[in-house]
Amino acid sequence: MFGGRGLYVDDVFVAILAGDVLYLKTDDETRERFETAGGCRFEYTRQGTTQVTGYWAPPSDAMDSPALMGPWVRLALDAALRARAGNRKRR
Fold it and tell me: What is the rounded CA–CA span in Å between residue 61 and residue 41?
């Protein structure tokens, strides 16, 4: 799909590692926090077209601090769990 690696918490897909950048799962409830904090969205090109995703990089200072990264990972896990719950309801 994107040439990166997927990261899971238990069996929940929460992040993408592409190159040297970590991108965490977002949704409508969390996306603005990542954008406001200066994160960038994970995008890739497929058949000449840019594909945007719901994965955003956390603030750069969080990359060096487990204490600062924890809340961002929690937001990603919460978004992934909401997505999973929504997918189950649609089935």
Answer: 17
**How many H-runs (helices) and E-runs (strands) does the chain carry?**
2, 5
Is the Cα torsion angle 51, 45, 74, 5 positive or negative in sign? Answer: positive
Domain boundaries, the chain: 5-90
Dmax (CA) of the chain = 40
CATH number of 5-90: 3.30.1460.30
Q: What is the pTM of this model?
A: 0.89
Q: How far apart are CA 75 and CA 15, in angstroms?
A: 11
| pLDDT digits 0-9 by tens, 49-58 | 999 999 999 9
Instruction: Give the sign of the dihedral formed by CA 50, CA 8, CA 26, CA 19.
Output: negative
Report which secondary-structure segment, H or E, holds 16: strand 12-18
Contact at 8 Å (CB) between 3 and 53? Answer: no
Report the alpha-carbon distance of residue 71 to residue 69 in Å, rounded: 6
